[in-house]
Design goal:
This protein has 96 residues and is an all-alpha fold. It has 2 domains: 41 residues, no CATH class; 45 residues, no CATH class. The protein contains 3 helices and no strands. Helix 1 packs across helix 2. It is elongated, with a radius of gyration of 19 Å.
Length: 96
């Protein structure tokens, strides 16, 4: 992740954590987890329905999947390929 993104993320978490009212029913650690979650959701596009997958463009269309080892990239790619085959009626070539 780019350093400016990390700095922005940490500053937003710090701002929200400092300004947050203490809730006695919730452990402080859980409040921090909630704040981090909320800031990540905002950073990644906010709550709501995700935008649909756009396969517009000059074929072949490439989709890059990135993540840590064991995080499910191959499984997700296979599920995505199957969904595209069924819903879009398109041929799919999957390389992992």
């Amino acid at each position: 992740v780019a350093l400016p993104v990390v700095k922005d993320f940490t500053s937003k978490v710090r701002e929200r954590a400092i300004g947050e009212d203490v809730i006695k029913a919730v452990a402080p650690g859980q409040q921090v987890v909630k704040i981090v979650h909320d800031v990540l959701v905002d950073l990644l596009g906010g709550p709501g329905e995700p935008e649909g997958l756009s396969l517009e463009g000059e074929p072949p269309v490439a989709i890059l999947m990135a993540g840590l080892q064991g995080s499910g990239k191959t499984t997700t790619a296979a599920k995505l390929a199957r969904r595209i085959q069924k819903t879009e009626k398109k041929r799919v070539l999957l390389a992992s």
